[in-house]
Amino acid sequence: MTISRLRLQPADVGIGMTGQRARDRLVERLRSGGEATPAISDERVLNAIRTVPRHQFVDEALAARAYEDNALPIGHGQTISQPWVVARMTEALLEQGMPKRVLEVGTGSGYQAAVLAALGIEVFTVERIGDLLRGARKRFRSLGLNVRSKHDDGRIGWPELAPFDGVIVTAAGPALVDALIEQLAPGGTLVAPVGPANAQSLLCLRKDAEGRIERHDLGRVVFVPLLSGMIDR
Ligand code: SAH
């Protein structure tokens, strides 16, 4: 298993709150697990988390907190997901084998997309808030990550480029979105949080070769809401 080579600056690999040691400690925490965060055991996922400089996906003022296992604000009332949630969703996506092409709904900071791209996955990501998407694109470029993105309401998916081996939704809707299930290839996996603000479940859907759907509940999570329409700024 090779992790895609990212373009890192000396400060990203050195010591200190944002260096390699901080990422290594985060990985050890994910590997051991905690009370509300069951252990992550997929070494491919842990390696990707070890590689991607999460502090570059938040405001400089928050960089020192980037390797705590918490969600952090990224502006526009949105958050970069908690590392454990990113790891758990990625692990679920990889369980049936490494997907080639994955669609993400909710680019946000771009961190989840970067973790997938670091695994060598071809990533397609959709964001409804223009400012957030522009910020994420800058990060993809500076890290040398090959991620395709578009500014749109992600609930329509990306029909022209479907089907996808994996679909990951990083905002919670009231129900699973049919268009996204349709754009999942046979043998593919979809991971999405579903439910109201105080009672969301992380659902994992598998589509078999005949198109039959199997569904698992991976447990309670907290996400920002999946909203309709687009915002320019
Ligand atoms: N994956 C992101 C998580 C960001 S939070 C990260 O790693 O940082 C969820 C994001 O979903 C927000 O940026 C929000 O604007 C976006 N979002 C919500 N509803 C959406 C929709 N219908 N289409 C596209 N993006 C949406």
Summarize the helices and strands and which ones pair or pack.
Layout: H1 10-13, H2 20-32, H3 43-51, E1 72-75, E2 78-80, H4 83-94, E3 101-105, H5 111-118, E4 122-127, H6 130-143, E5 147-151, E6 164-169, H7 178-182, E7 184-194, E8 200-207, E9 213-221
Parallel strand pairs: 3-4, 3-6, 4-5, 6-7
Antiparallel strand pairs: 1-2, 7-8, 8-9
Helix pairs in contact: 2-3
The protein binds S-adenosyl-L-homocysteine.
Q: How would you describe what is shown here?
A:
By secondary structure, this protein is of the alpha/beta class. It has a single domain (10-221), classed as Vaccinia Virus protein VP39 (Rossmann fold). 28% of the residues lie in helices and 24% in strands. The protein contains 7 helices and 9 strands; from the N terminus they run αααββαβαβαββαβββ. It has a 7-stranded mixed β-sheet with strand order 5-4-3-6-7-8-9. α2 (20-32) packs antiparallel against α3 (43-51). The radius of gyration is 16 Å and the shape is globular. The mean pLDDT is 95. Residues 78-81, 105-106, 108-109, 111-112, 126-129, 132, 153-155, 170-171, 224, 226-227 line the site of S-adenosyl-L-homocysteine.
**What general form does the structure show?**
globular
* Radius of gyration computed on alpha carbons: 16 Å
Percent range of helical residues? 25-40%
CATH H-level superfamily title: Vaccinia Virus protein VP39
- Round the mean pLDDT to the nearest integer and report it: 95
Number of strands: 9
Q: Bound compounds, please?
A: S-adenosyl-L-homocysteine
Count of helices?
A: 7
How much of the polypeptide forms β-strand, as a percent range? 15-25%
Regarding CATH, which class? Alpha Beta
Q: What pattern of helices and strands is seen along the backbone?
A: HHHEEHEHEHEEHEEE
Side-by-side strand order of the widest sheet: 5-4-3-6-7-8-9
What is the rounded distance between the termini? Answer: 39 Å
| Major β-sheet annotation | 7 strands, mixed
Structural class assignment: alpha/beta
The total domain count is: 1
